[in-house]
Amino acid sequence: MSKVKKTAFNLFKGITILLLVFLSACQSAPAPAIRETGEFYINDRSHILLNATAWTILAYGRDLYIDSHDQASIDQSISGSQVVVATYVGEVGSIDTTEIFNSWGIGDNDMGILIVLFFSLVDEEYVYNDMVFEIGLRMEGYLSAFDADAIITQYFDDPSISEYDYDQRVVSLYFGVLEHLYLNVYDYTTFDFQNFIDEYNSIKYDYLGPLPSSYEKESLPTWAWILIIIGVVGLGIIPGGYLIPFIFFGGRGGRGGGGRSGGYWFRR
């Protein structure tokens, strides 16, 4: 074996070992059942909700995160609240919402909330079934399960909203949660819930383009790319047997603050 070929072989062998170690690590820490979107605050990959609903959650979710940082009077140890909404077609228990929360890192300072709405597909129509409301470790001190349950009853289960108007119910709940956080965590004196609802209703059925993540394509998992590259190099398709370090990883996206949940959640 020539010196050049021997060097290339040793390089390939060494990198292959490293990649296999990385692959093993990936297998021991599997990706969550739902991958976060680039917008982070709204995850509606099944397109169950109106575009206006998605844009509204995104806009006001970002506003809360910024507002919870910006005022000098705010205790920075509880800044960075993030409220994320996700839809999922399936049964409660078929996904681990705590794993999803922690993987996405919702909320700075563990001040996060994840609301997952579970739907089933019946005769080509989405039908709402359940909700899981997961609360971050520090957020637990400011929003108990009892408080959250009361907010769901008042805003999501509002009898004045049609049972099948999921968009109105979700937006009402979202503003209800924000109202609680602004008034009870960040000591705002007012939160004009009705004005925000009126603003939403004024654009609810207007044409609004989908969020950028609607155009995202699911990328191959990292382990698949590793195996492809190892196979390509092993077959000698890359001249000289050298490994060209172009591994295409799907971007995680999102802007989580590293928040955690200890599994404090309830189902409604």
Output the keywords:
single chain; 268 residues; alpha/beta; Diaminopimelate Epimerase, Chain A, domain 1; 2 domains; 5-stranded mixed sheet; 7 helices; 5 strands; 41% helix
Q: What would you note in describing this structure?
A:
The protein is α/β, with parallel strands linked by helices and 268 residues long. It has 2 domains: 3-31 and 221-241; 42-213, Roll (Diaminopimelate Epimerase, Chain A, domain 1). It has 7 helices and 5 strands, in the order αβαβαββααααβ. The protein has helices at residues 3-28, 51-70, 97-104, 145-156, 166-184, 193-203, 222-234; strands spanning 42-43, 82-89, 112-122, 125-135, 264-267. A 5-stranded mixed sheet has the order 1-2-3-4-5, with helices on both faces. Helix 1 packs antiparallel against helix 7 (222-234).
Quick overview of this protein structure:
The protein has 268 residues and is of the alpha/beta class. The chain is 41% helix and 13% strand.
Identify low-pLDDT runs.
19-29, 235-254
- Overall number of domains: 2
Order of helices and strands: HEHEHEEHHHHE
Gyration radius, rounded? 23 Å
Helix content: 40-55%
Question: Largest beta sheet: what is the strand line-up?
Answer: 1-2-3-4-5
Q: Compute the number of helices.
A: 7
Shape: globular
Structural class: alpha/beta
Instruction: Please outline the major beta sheet.
Output: 5 strands, mixed
How many strand segments?
5
The CATH topology of the largest domain corresponds to: Diaminopimelate Epimerase, Chain A, domain 1
First-residue to last-residue Cα separation: 68 Å
Q: Assembly state here?
A: single chain
Q: From the coordinates shown, what is the CATH architecture of the largest domain? A: Roll
CATH class of the largest domain: Alpha Beta
Strand content: 5-15%
Mean pLDDT: 82
